[in-house]
Design brief:
The complex is a heterodimer of chains A (484) and B (282). Chain A is of the alpha+beta class and 484 residues long. Chain B has 282 residues and is of the alpha/beta class. Chain B contains ten helices and twelve strands. In chain B, helix 6 packs across helix 7. The termini of chain B are far apart. Classes of the chains: A alpha+beta (484), B alpha/beta (282). Chains A and B meet through helix 14 of A and helix 5 and helix 6 of B.
Chain lengths: 484, 282
């Protein structure tokens, strides 16, 4: 089904060849194939250190690829049905930033759901574009933010016909998808670009068992976290573009902030993971799905846990659901998700992706086995047996409509002072407050601080969520804008 | 030509048996299975290269994992054996006419098939009508049971492969739930001597101690296992393994056992000082 030889991995092959040439290194990195740092080499292994090398003729250059990196990018583009795929080594965050930089300039508007990852709003702080937030619905029982309704996106487009782009999570952290095809059609009919955050959507490209991928839906750009469930090394990602976006200009935008010393460990991991998924992805993800469905079924037999799945789909703010996600609602056993998350790690040596106020999320991927799934299920059944209390109900998690009174860039760089969080009601926030994970902003620069927001922050802190973003590490003080 | 089977007991210690013939080898979904014959230990099976069962000394292990709990509560009726695909534990259990049901949860069907073929002296009771074999992960099997068994026997591999889940807190918690009010849990408890084994031993003890009011350890000498000094765990919601020993009743059953006897039962719970310390510091 592919025209290019997907069994090839040009970067990996070039590195192997390079290694066999035993070239004497008088260039960086200074560890010189590991010889200069014995302890690190013993720890990571000589095989790893010997290919931690710099750009050079036989290995191409990430900033301006013309040979093996170029070839590897073309293979990846085909595997992801994109016009072009860029190898990203500064995390999916850098791919999200590159999308924003490419699509928008200072003062341009972008329509986005509030539950975007912090990297998207950070990009706005850097380039001065203006967010127009769309309410992602909230599932009241589970307390999770959902997707954007097409009607809400359309209303935002009507209210802001000058917007340049629409940003879509495909899927959200919790696996919720919006109706991407219709959003793309609407956006394109109004000359807007569609940017997709597919940090959790790698598998959409390799199997029919999941929601539609951004490229298939006709989106213009997509940031894909190959490292999250595709098997590559942490920090490696792909940025994909569709036919309407200029490859050269996108490359220039990437190069604004990308390292000039791209890691060959990361690039070769992307190369080999792409090969693996192109050749075996359908089988791998069919197995991942089967494990997730099995785990859901078993967890739902445990009184008090609710592992949600396809039944959530409602055609609106939950247009589709990614069944490879394993999210579990925990409050019916009287525990916050974050408490279950801590118990799993502290008492059972099981590390899951995150716990929020009402839910936990386990990531299943190419590397999981049935035996490990059994451990997770059994640990949850034990937690329910030993800690079940009366249902804790759900914290009233109504959508708090952000009042954006200044652009994120202006507010972030404005004159400011620190005030006690408790005394900040009514003031204009100049920094982020987020609950991490999942890294969705509670407050962003330029937004008015309300009582509702302060109540939410207090509660999340009490429940032990890891709060970040403010200059004050304890989040007792918050920076507010005092002038331009 | 000489052919030797070698197992690393630690990074710096090897244990070798001269092999007369390799009879079988297979890589299953879970592990590599090998069967060999030797003069000294007869036919033996290894999993992932680690000694599991040897014809000549298996009586020690199987005596010690079954008869101590049976001598404490001879009225045991429902038993679950987890792991134990060689059938040795089931064989010893089947000698008690009072036992009504023996469930065997073994994850790897091939282990049972291979043992039936090459080690008939341990698998001989697997077709007893009271025995039901479940080809399932023990962790999964136990999750569905509550307040049902009088005795659970954890006859697992070392915790470095498919047996890893059987050394966890979630596993022992589920065992506690699956046992009746006066239930007993017996587990193979690794060796106290070499560090990696001692770590597993301490980890298992920590988990068991968290659930069972009675949590004791006893020992046996098993030539083919690392260091030869092997431990078993006796955990219970109710019975004390020495104070509640029903020696007379057990002896009246008239079972001949080549290793176990009721004097040894009492003595096996007397532990060396360093082992006691490992337990205290677990």
């Amino acid at each position: 089904m592919y025209e290019l030889p997907q069994s090839k991995a040009p970067i990996y092959e070039a590195l192997k060849k390079f290694k066999s040439m035993r070239v004497v290194p008088f260039d960086v990195p200074g560890h010189k194939r590991g010889k200069g740092n014995k302890e690190l080499t013993d720890f990571l292994g000589e095989a790893c250190m010997s290919v931690d090398v710099n750009s050079m003729k036989p290995l191409d250059n990430l900033c301006h690829p013309v040979s093996v990196i170029r070839e590897a990018e073309e293979l990846a583009a085909e595997a992801f049905s994109a016009k072009h795929a860029f190898f990203m080594v500064n995390g999916t965050t850098s791919a999200v930033q590159a999308m924003i930089f490419t699509a928008l300039k200072e003062g341009d508007k972008i329509i986005m759901p509030r539950n975007v990852h912090r990297s998207a709003i950070n990009a706005l702080v850097v380039n001065g574009a203006v967010p127009v937030y769309v309410n992602p619905g909230v599932n009241k029982r589970l307390g999770i933010p959902l997707g954007m309704r097409v009607s809400d996106v359309e209303a935002a487009m009507d209210a802001h016909p000058d917007a340049k782009a629409v940003f879509v999570n495909n899927p959200t952290y919790y696996g919720i998808c919006s109706d991407l095809r219709r959003i793309v059609a609407l956006a394109h009919s109004r000359g807007m670009l569609v940017l997709a955050d597919e940090a959790h959507g790698t598998h959409f490209y390799f199997s029919d068992l999941f929601p539609v991928s951004a490229m298939e839906a006709g989106a213009d750009m997509a940031a894909v976290s190959m490292h999250k469930n595709g098997g590559s090394l942490t920090q490696s990602s792909f940025l994909l573009i569709g036919s309407e976006v200029s490859e050269g200009y996108t490359r220039q935008c990437i190069n604004l902030t990308q390292t000039t010393s791209g890691s060959y460990l990361l690039m070769s991991s992307l190369d080999l993971s792409r090969k693996n998924l192109a050749l075996n992805g359908d089988k791998i993800y069919a197995k991942v799905l089967q494990m997730a469905e099995y785990a859901r079924e078993e967890i739902n037999k445990i009184d008090g846990f609710y592992a949600y799945g396809q039944e959530l789909v409602n055609g609106g703010d939950i247009f589709d659901f990614d069944r490879a996600k394993l999210s579990v609602y925990t409050r019916d056993i009287g525990l916050a998700g974050i408490e279950v998350y801590d118990m799993l790690r502290d008492d059972y040596d099981i590390q899951i992706e995150f716990g929020d106020i009402g839910n936990i999320l386990a990531i299943l991927s190419v590397g999981d086995t049935n035996l490990m799934i059994e451990r997770l299920i059994s640990a949850l059944s034990e937690i329910a047996r030993m800690h079940k209390q009366p249902s804790a109900g759900m914290f009233d998690h109504e959508y708090i409509t952000p009042r954006v009174d200044m652009t994120p860039k202006e507010a972030f760089f404005a004159k400011k002072r620190a005030v006690r969080l408790a005394d900040s009601e009514g003031l204009l926030c100049s920094e982020f407050v987020m609950c991490y994970p999942p890294g969705i902003p509670i407050l962003a620069p330029g937004e008015r601080i309300t009582k509702e927001i302060l109540d939410y922050i207090r509660y999340a802190k009490e429940k032990g969520c890891f709060m970040t973003g403010t200059e004050d590490v304890n989040i007792d003080y918050i920076n507010v804008v005092t002038g331009r | 030509m000489e052919l030797w089977y070698t197992e690393k007991h630690s990074d710096d210690v090897q244990f070798s048996i001269r092999v007369e013939k390799q009879l079988y080898t297979e890589e299953t979904e879970y592990q590599r299975i090998d069967v060999m014959t030797s003069k000294e230990f007869g036919t033996f099976m290894t999993l992932d290269g680690l000694m599991m069962v040897a014809e000549k000394d298996e009586f020690i292990y199987h005596d010690m994992i079954i008869h101590p709990p049976m001598a404490v509560n001879p009225d045991i009726k429902n038993v679950l054996v987890i792991g134990g695909g060689d059938g040795g534990a089931v064989r010893e259990l089947a000698r008690y006419s009072g036992i009504e049901q023996i469930d065997l949860a073994e994850i790897d069907r091939t282990v049972i098939d291979v043992c039936r073929r090459f080690l008939p002296s341990t698998t001989c009771a697997l077709d007893d009508p009271r025995v039901k074999i479940h080809y399932e992960d023990g962790l999964k099997f136990i999750r569905r049971k509550a307040d049902f068994y009088d005795l659970i026997v954890v006859d697992s591999t070392d915790p470095f492969g498919p047996g890893e889940g059987l050394f966890t807190r979630e596993f022992y918690g589920n065992c506690y739930k699956a046992l009746k009010e006066d239930g007993i849990l017996v587990n193979q408890h690794e060796s106290p001597y070499y560090k990696t084994y001692a770590d597993s031993f301490q980890r298992a003890h920590r988990s068991i101690r968290g659930f069972f009011p009675v949590h004791m350890v006893y020992q046996a000498h098993i030539p083919t296992y690392p260091s030869g000094h092997w431990l078993f765990g006796f955990a219970s919601k109710h019975y004390h393994p020495v104070r509640d020993l029903q020696a007379e009743r057990w002896n009246n059953l008239g079972l001949y056992t080549k290793y176990y006897n009721t004097d040894l039962h009492v003595g096996s719970f007397a532990l060396p000082t360093y082992v006691k310390e490992l337990l205290e510091n677990a």
